[in-house]
Amino acid sequence: MTLAVFFGCAFIAFGPSFALFVFTIAKDPLRVIILIAGAFFWLLSLLLSSLVWFIAIKASNSQDLTLQRGLLIFGVFFSVLLQEVFRFAYYRLLRKATEGLAAISDDDGSAISVRQMAYVAGLGFGIMSGAFSMINILSDSLGPGTVGIFGDSQYYFITAALMTLALTLLHTFWGVVFFEGCEKSRWWVIAAVVSLHLLVAGLSLLNPLYEGSLPPVYVITLATGVWAFFSSGGSLHSLSALCTLCGFESRASRTMTEVPLSKTPNPQPLPGRRSMWLPTAPGVCSRQES
Amino acid sequence: MRLLQLWAFDFCQLLFMNTSDSEEDSYNERSALVQSESPTIPSYNQDHDMSLPQETDSKRRRPVSSGLDEPGPVERERASTPDGEEEELTLKYGAKHVIMLFIPVTLCMVVVVATIKSVSFYTEKSSQRLIYTPFEEDPNSVGQRLLNSFLNTIVMISVIVVMTIILVVLYKYRCYKFIHGWLILSSLMLLFWFSFMYLGEVFKTYNVAMDYPTLVMIIWNFGVVGMICIHWKGPLRLQQAYLIVISALMALIFIKYLPEWSAWVILGAISIYDLIAVLCPKGPLRMLVETAQERNEPIFPALIYSSAMVWMVGMADSSNPGSGESFTIIYKYFFPQDNEMLWVKLGLGDFIFYSVLVGKAAATGGDWNTTLACFVAILIGLCLTLLLLAIFKKALPALPISITFGLVFYFSTDNLVRPFMDSLAAHQYYI
After folding, report:
1. What family name appears in the similarity comment (chain A) (predicted)?
2. Domain housing A228
3. What is the pLDDT of residues B267-310, one digit of tens each?
4. Residue A287 falls inside a structural domain
5. CA–CA distance from A45 to each of A42, A193, B88, B313, B378 (Å)?
6. Does A159 touch chain B if contact means CB atoms closer than 8 Å?
7. Min CA distance, A224 vs chain B (Å)?
8. How many domains does chain A have?
């Protein structure tokens, strides 16, 4: 137990989201604010759903264990629905604030786009959701103890970490897809996101039968990731551009390698374009602008 | 020991008061010309000074103010441009400033929470109490406990009001030397005594064997460098680090010595007091600002944390406030084409009370969710306050919104969310 488990589970659960934060969000103050506000909205949804659950618990017989369990399951589904409601509310808030945000962004005219906001909002939801699921477990894993001493599964920590990771990524993808659906008024997308979330929560009810919960959740995560990629404007072409020579050259060009187009001593840049590099052969790359 | 601590506490009250040292005075003497060269500095100072006295025990909670309130000469030239442009300029730097305040607030909270979770000294309840909370809380009777905590709060707030009024009076009658001396003594106490206590407790927790000569050397260096950085000059990052450390130390003292329920009621009362003191026309802070404006001097630079960015050396050397304003951490960001400085300032008292809230959330119960919820709530409150600042463009109290959110989230997370999340974790259900 202790340190090895702590660090292992912490990195499994929070590694990708931390990396996403550091590489895509930390540099831009506006995105950090949107992230924290997203976390706040998720927290609000959790608060309201726990209030409802708490009232239900207090109003019912605390000795009846099946009833308590049923109420907990009801709490799970209600919380999922409320999270999606708050995701929609956050979408509306961000849309309303877009003009204001355009004004406070530092770069002239480069306001944050709805797609970027969708990603950041989704990540905010995901990070907060993951943190709330995992942090207490992580702090418990630091101390002495035997996992599963009362007959529970010994894989508790690692499955918790894996589930948290899946949920964080899922929230991010759902954010992207959801906002896109709202933008284009495709209500089936919203219904799909809600049902996927309910499905994932329902699968987690199968724990500790981890074979029934973890692999399907990861399949759903991958599928939603692919969906989010295509929904946010990605395409097979951009994927291939990422990997092939074109992408390589355009990246290399930023290190100022110049390829002369002809044998004339001072090749002038093509009129109307700022090109840092020129294609070595026609048709290899379609982009010339730096 | 108790007497000493009370004395320390007493001085700490004014710790974050303005502190103009003699250099600042001499700076002021020749400041007429200098300040005109640095147009925004007077407004900056004056805005700051607004938050001067007050505070609860010792911090100076400073209202968050924008340096744009009183445009200096350079800005007056620009003032002829339409309002919309100036507003856009104001809002433009809003997001950056929010983040630049988030970072030190977060750091301070992290230091406090880390200490609370590891060093048990600050969570042990001692029989000693501060003189400002004389009523003992009896854990057996809820009604009595509530009553005593309200009485403690009344005592504490009246002490603060009295100190604020004394400070305003002192300022009105130009007893600068007295205030200076008081301030220097307070910071001495904080930097040497409290850090000695803190270090001692950390060593006890980790069972580190330490001898007195080494300890004296460490504390001496820490304290002297702190005094120099805070009251005179020092590298920017070092100044900021010292301010964060000071705020954290003060917050830890509060967490230790305020009784349980009194601390929560005091937090609530302080936010209300902050609201009244900053926004009401007859409040002591208002009077202080008006006096300062009448005299047209950059009063006490206060202990505030400024979010403006790095001062570019060589820009306008004579207008470098860093030399004169000892307590101000100033980041100045010059936009070469605009020649303008915009910043937002947050008082150390605000840091301290945010950290007290989060620290108490970490101290009571072992639940990390509560701490995280309070942290996010405070950051969002700060964000909203800065948004309001950008809209209203006048000094605003930084405590009410954040503390309200923090309190609401603390109590609701502790009582509602915690059982829910614990049940979910027990069954490994995920929402």
Report:
1. Belongs to the APH-1 family.
2. 2-145+154-237
3. 999 999 888 888 888 777 777 767 776 776 554 543 334 333 22
4. no
5. 5, 17, 33, 48, 17
6. yes
7. 17
8. 1
